[in-house]
Amino acid sequence: PILIHVWRNCHCNRFQSLVFFRAVISAAFCSFLFGYHVHEKAILMVILPLTPLALTSKQDASIFIIMSTIGTYSLFPLLYQEGETLTKMALLLLYFAFSYKALDTLHSLKHSPLLSKFELFYLSLIVILQAYQILGFQFLTFFQKYSFLPLLLTSVYCAFANIYCFLKLYSLNLKA
Description:
The protein is mainly alpha-helical. It has helices at residues 2-9, 13-34, 44-53, 58-74, 85-106, 117-139, 141-145, 149-175. The longest helix is centred in the C-terminal third of the chain and has 27 residues, at 149-175.
């Protein structure tokens, strides 16, 4: 249905580039979701084209904030040394704060927040999940037996956000 929608709306000059751009991002998203097990770095196929789209509307900016934050967090297991944890978290929090403030200022004409309370709560769970991976894994003997559990939790956590953002982008495509 999305291809039919793109085909019908491409004759209008105003929507031509925006609808096509969202369709390309949706195709990259589908490719990522169906190949999720391959590698975490594949999320960059979605985040990079989504970056300029975040400047066009508040809904696109919301999707970008969630995807870029979750996409960055999903790459954390690739940097597995203990000394890197504080730097990773500090950079992620600074990146989130800066991008949220910049996009919120850009789209401030609409007097509603950029992210919903649910989305902010979900993104704040990153800190709890990271704390579990550092502290809980070391102090709880049950979890030492299952060394794959922190990576599994990270993967499942990021998968929920990816599916949520895909559905949000898909609904934006259908509304355009």
